[in-house]
Amino acid sequence: MTEAGSNTRRMALGRTIRAVGSADFMPSLMLYLAEVTPFQGCLLLLLDGTAPPRHIYDDVRAERRTVVIDRYLDGAYLLDPFFTHYRQGGDPGAFRLRDVAPDRFQQSTYHKTYYRSIRLVDEAAILSPLPDGRTVFTSIGRREDAKRFSRRDIARFQDMLPIYDALLAQHFSHPRQDLEPDDLPRDIDEVLVTFDSPALTRRERDIAALILKGHSTASIAVIAGIAEGTVKIHRKNIYRKLGISSQGELFSLFLSRLGRR
Description:
alpha+beta, transcription, Sig_transdc_resp-reg_C-effctor, Tscrpt_reg_LuxR_C
């Protein structure tokens, strides 16, 4: 890093420290983060166990909020590999999407529709534990005209994590007013169980959730501890019961059920 770049980062850090506990903190923190490694969009959420995520901050334009933010918070987060990593007790830190995504995530309907609609070429995330047991999820994206996040980018984030996490911990130690509870699904099964009869069995719902997340037949077999042929039978039965014939139709049905909640 050049001397000028180092000075710019120090100034950004100073502004962030001065803004702790104020409404200027999150914008200042994101400017500091962008000095570490550039990105073009961000979303910060507060995670607390099995509760739905709470919105903290984003820099999405108003005309794009329905597609980018509202759809995600309405329940699409249940298919997010980063959110799944958190729910499954994964380590905190900085990650690229491809570090935590299922083996066929880029071929999943969720990736092809949601990521295409938000025009991202790549996403990285930082999971920052707070002293009270909650976690701040920072999602940062790069648009289609930018390069994907590299291992060096993630190494830069990892190097500054002690500062980043300390700033968040200090900010959230200030008096705050909690948001009102949201009537949102806590897991994918809450949505799948509402599908019309004949109802899916527990095992079929588990398989359907893995399909939606972007796991291949082989990956599902390993996770579920069953043969690949058995996975294919479950998939066939799921599609038959729901009157569909593709993962795209399963995804559309999932989204439609979210809209009825």
